[in-house]
What does this fold into?
Amino acid sequence: MEHDRSIGCRRAPVILGGFHEMMRPTIRRFGPTTGAVLAVLALGLASCTTRSAAVQPTQQAAGVAAADAGGPIGPNPTEQALLAARGPLAITQVAANGAGFASGTIYYPTDQSLGRMAAIVVVPGFISNKSSIEWYGPRVASWGFVVMTINTNSPIDFPASRATQQLNALKWLTSASPVANRTDPTRLGAMGWSMGGGGSLDAAKQSPDVKAAIGLAPWEINSYGGVSTPILVVSCAGDTVAPPASMGSAFYNQLKGEKAQLTVPGQHFCVTTPNNQIGKYAVAWMKRFLDNDTRFSQFVCSPASSPATYRNTCPV
It folds into this structure.
């Protein structure tokens, strides 16, 4: 089935028309530097391009184990399998319309024998809709997760609001969604891009229920000293909206728990289209820290292929 992957560019000119007035209180509060960063972010999003891709469920692999308490699902992982566009499990999808967040899509394995699986919510960035992060849904779900990609209530919501909506979405996903009986409410993951990435780190900081998080080119003015949740930060080397030096790398240095930072070439949008190295580490991170599947420790701790770079706190 073909699915729209276009970033919400058509709405950007309308939103940008009132951008200066809407951001005036924020600029007064946080100063001209933050105002300039927000302006660059908005302009970059206004000039974004659109893409489309098909969601192709994969064939289920043999030897699948139950996942109620976390643990191994599927065959022994390999580098080749993690770099592939899909994992070993066949998946399907269903629309999500819960309370406390905007609409979404849930991706999950079709195999009913898997038991309750860890649940992950993925959030987009400023002036973007979920199509910008949609590729993570089927890719991660095909490794044995229930993954929901969501829109935010407003495209201009800041990270704190996105964190609240992400936690609302996780609660709905595990308690009232059509697949609530397939999820484990004790194993929750947060993932997002840009302000959604900052929101995901905020969600991990706020809620002990979030057991692992991934910030994709995260934008936030918060700090994360003392946060012990296992967190993977993915940075875009040339990012001028969420510069690694002042955001991604700074967040990594502040974190106190298991952590890693993958830096790949590109600008702020480097995480919004399928990237095999990002996919590999995102899946391995969630498998290791949400499923407690130690078979993935070797990949969490393995170096990235050039030109990407990777640092971590291994051994885990």
Summary: Residues 1-67 have pLDDT under 50 and may be disordered. The first strand starts at residue 2 and ends at 4. The chain has one domain: 52-312. The domain at 52-312 is CATH 3.40.50.1820 (Rossmann fold).
